[in-house]
Amino acid sequence: MPPVSSPSVTQPPPAEAVTPLIRGLDVLRRLTDADGTLALAELARATGLARSTVDRICATLAHLGFVRLDGRDASLAPPLMAVANAYLDALRVPELLGPLADRLADDLDESVSLAVPDGPDIRFVHQVLRRRALSISFRVGDTLPGDGSAPGLVFRDGVPLAVDDQLVEPGLIAVAAPVRGPGGAVVCAVSVVSHTSRHGVASLRAAVRGALETCVAEMESVLADPPPLTGPRPGPRSVGAAGAGGAGLAEIVSLARGLSVLTCFDAAHPAMTLSEIAGRTGLARATARRALLTYQHLGHVEQNGRTFRLTPRVLALGCAPLSRTTLPRIAAPHLAALSERLGESVGLSVPDGEWVRCTARVTPRRVMSVDIGVGSRLPADATAAGRVLRGAPLPAPGLAVVDGPEDGLWSLAVPVRDLDGRTVSALDVTAHQGRGSADAWGDALRETGAAIDADLHVTARFVPVPVH
Ligand code: PHB
Questions:
Q1: Strands 67-70 and 37-39
Q2: Could you report how far apart the first and last alpha carbons of the chain are, in Å?
Q3: Among 71, 272, 340, 362, which lies 20 to 30 A Cα-Cα from 119?
Q4: 166 alpha carbon to ligand 1 midpoint, in Å?
């Protein structure tokens, strides 16, 4: 199913719009529409910019951590998810209604989603997928046409229940209902999604109606009396501009400033005046104003009286491709860098009964190398990864050192932790005895582990990330 791309902006930008920001956002949107990766030459063709300009923009975005450059390709990188998170946090719908949507999916054993209107389209802000042989794969950030989807019909027609009978895709059927805020306005639509192999639309409607009505009533009572904000939240992301590499400093600075205007929104600051935005970002009012004008022009920000808020179009900046990921994919560039740095085999594993199962591995090519393939299993007792995954007491903070898994090998491992601090995977280096040292390799492992944790945490804030 090709993603529906957002309508392109046809009005010329206002005179005060920030050109490097417009170009940087254009590159991010094109990468999003291409599901996360494009060759630089393709990006030049798609944006109509000179290849040298595209190279410079991508070097700037790479410097800021939002894009990864790999030979001729540019790919979206997890830190960009902070932009989507700012919108989703400010909206509060995933946080407040997500758990109720999850429960509905469990009760009905069907996929359930939450969507909001985005111009003529709808955009998903929460997805609970059931794994099935015939499975649909819309993710948070994906769009569907408003007049060709169940949530779209809910928003367009104001009906209490709308049906999608294979409007989007042959075999795909859905039933959607509006969820209203305390003022009576529709905040989002909740959909139950199934397949013609399981239901016809009439039987789906009959099967889900009661549970859907109950769920909507619960959602509306949560919206009417939302719980206070809890817990510390990541502050506005500060983006450094040191060590410019191939990118021009002025461009880095204006892109970094511009993006900090998006990431300064959160649940505690869903709508702000220009002065508040300038205060939270540390930007001069004039700078913040120009960034806001640029975003308004592109449809990422809307103004209501004196306050500005993010629109669902913010999710067109990377969200869907970055949510279609797994921990091994998030870790891959970090594993490659670590293997290169140590000149050894490094990998990730997860618990599997009395075993640990390898989920990712990068091994340098040489005559004698460690041969542990993805999917292979080793006894948990005999590996450092096994100790880490079992929470065994470790000789140094976060570091397990073990002989084995086979004679002549030794391994070192550190935990990879989810947002709640639970160990979900182990990162190891495994080498021939006599090579390396626990001290030097321990530091490298801990640094890499922290970098993988950070990418996992920013990605997994509002979307589930499978650990394998
Ligand atoms: C979905 O959540 O994947 C979904 C929802 C409503 C539709 C189609 C798909 O009409």
A1: unpaired
A2: 24
A3: 272
A4: 10
| Cα-to-centroid distance, 177 and ligand 1 (Å) | 12
- Please tell me the distance from the alpha carbon of residue 35 to that of residue 323, in angstroms, as a whole number: 10
Closest ligand 1 atom to 111 CA: 2
| Probe target for ligand 1 pocket from 142, 147, 172, with the most ligand atoms within 8 Å of CB | 172
Distance CA 460, CA 327 (A): 10
Segment 181-193, tens digit of pLDDT:
999 999 999 999 9
As a whole number of angstroms, the distance between CA 21 and CA 31 comes to 15
Contact residues of ligand 1, CB 6 A cut-off:
113, 136, 138, 144, 149-151, 164, 168, 172, 174, 176, 191, 193
Q: Which one, of 31, 25, 26, 22, lies nearest residue 3 by Cα? A: 31
Distance 138 CA to ligand 1 centre (A): 8
Cα dist from 172 to 198, 300, 456, whole Å: 10, 30, 31
Q: pTM of this prediction?
A: 0.94
Strands of the sheet with 172-180, listed across from one edge = 143-145, 121-128, 111-118, 186-195, 172-180, 162-165
CA dihedral (394, 396, 397, 400) in degrees, to 10, reads -50
Distance 40 CA to ligand 1 centre (A): 33
Residue type, 305: G
Q: How far apart are CA 297 and CA 293, in angstroms?
A: 6
pLDDT in tens, 134-144: 566 799 999 99
